[in-house]
Fold this sequence. Notes:
alpha+beta; Thiol Ester Dehydrase, Chain A; 26% helix
Amino acid sequence: xxxxxxxxxxxxxxxxxxxxxxxxxxxxxxxxxxxxxxxxxxxxxxxxxxxxxxxxxxxxxxxxxxxxxxxxxxxxxxxxxxxxxxxxxxxxxxxxxxxxxxxxxxxxxxxxxxxxxxxxxxxxxxxxx
Length: 129
């Protein structure tokens, strides 16, 4: 079982994410500062990219009622404004007696991995769905 979604990173996304999270590191929110970094421009918060995984887990697989228990993440490359991020999750282990699932998680830009890891979720019972 797997699910995916795609999202284009927009300036407004980074500004809103900075406001909501309180992470106003200038590499994410200031064009002038970001231009002086090795990236040459603003980059998305790593957790913004990771939040796409959260969106998949909570809305598609396992979906509504799932409870995020843990996540391991490796950030492999920067995500820039205008990038189209393809987030993907795949069930790699089920523990039915505990209603748990382990999922491989990945995000790619132009086919190249920018994030990977795994998540454990508590799976809702079918009667609550």
